[in-house]
Amino acid sequence: MRAIGIDEARSTFALLLRKIAAGEEVVIARGATPIVRLVAVTPADPQRLGIDAGKFTVPDDFNHPPNEGQIGQVRPMKYLLDTEVWLWMQAHPERFGHHTLSLLADERNQLLLSAASSWEIAMKFRKGKVQLPYPPDQYVPDRMIAGGVDGFAVQHSHALFVSHLDNHHRDPFDRLLVSQAMLENLPITSADPAIAAYEVEVIDATL
Length: 207
Fold this sequence. Notes:
2 domains, three-stranded mixed sheet, 16% strand
C-alpha cells in the first residue's frame, strides 16, 4: 500500500488510476494523517437470471399465435361501421357475435361512422322507418360522443367512385359506404351479406 500527499495525487491522478486498476492500493494523506484509501472496485457478477422477478409475468401462451378471436385485440385498427351496426350498438348489442363485441369494446380500435350513415338515419327517421328517442341531429352526435365513435366525412372522390361499383347492392347509402371503405382501405363492419360481394374487407357483425 502506497501513501502520497494531496498535491502528488492531484498531479499524477491518471497514473494513480492505472495503478489502482492494476491492483495497487493508494492512501492519500494530509501531512502525516491518512484521509482516503483508494482501491479498485471489484465488478459484481452479472445477474443474468431473475433481475426483474416479481415485477411482471410472461404468460404461458406467449409463443402461441393469436386465434381469429384475438386478432382485433392485438392489432388496433380503424373500422368503418355500417349504419345498421351503429344502430345495433345503441339498441341491440345482443345481436353481435362474440368476435365483433370484442372488437367494438376494444378502446384501442378507432370506430368510424360515415356522414352517409347520418344521411341514411335522417332519411329513414323522416319516413318513419326508424324510431329514435329524439331527432337525429341531436341523437346521432350525442351517441357518437358517448360511444367514442368518430365521424368520417364523405369526400367527392368517395361519391364519384360509386360509378365504378357493380350493382351487387342497390341501396345508395351502402354503396357509398362501400366506396369509402374501398378507397380508404378500411374494413367495414356489417351484417349485410350483399356488401361482401365487393372487393372490400368485411367484418361479419354476427360472428
